[in-house]
Amino acid sequence: MIGVIENQMLTVAEKLREIEVEASAEKGSFNLFALIERDDSFGKWDIVISAKWIKDNEKTLINTIASKISKNLSKDEQLMLSRIVVLPSTDPFVKNLNMFVGAEHGTIKLSNNTFNGIFVKEAYLITSKPN
Is residue 90 one of the residues assigned to a domain? Predict the structure, then answer.
C-alpha cells in the first residue's frame, strides 16, 4: 500500500511541476513551489508557494493554481491535497528550506526533515531557490 501511495504522490508532484512551469511562465518565477506532508496532516498534502512578486496578488495566485489543479489532477488526486499556502519570500520557513536544497522545475523528494522548527514528514520540491 505504501508503494502505491508513493507512486500516486510522485504522479501528483509531476503534474504540479507542469503547473508550476506554466504558472511561472505566466506570472514570474517562484522562490518555493512544494508539495508538503506535515507530520500532523493525516495523509493530506499542502502546496506551499512563495515568490517575491506575489505581494497583493495572493488571492489571484491561489485561484489560478486551484483552477490549474482542477483541470490537471483527477478527483482522487485532488482529494490528497489539503490547501494552498502562500508564504512571503522572507518567511523563515521558506528561507530555511531554500538553504537546504536547490531546485527549479524538478521533483526532489525529501523525508523526515525539520525546517525552522516545522517537521516535514515528506516533501516534493518542485522549485526551491533563495531570494
Answer: yes
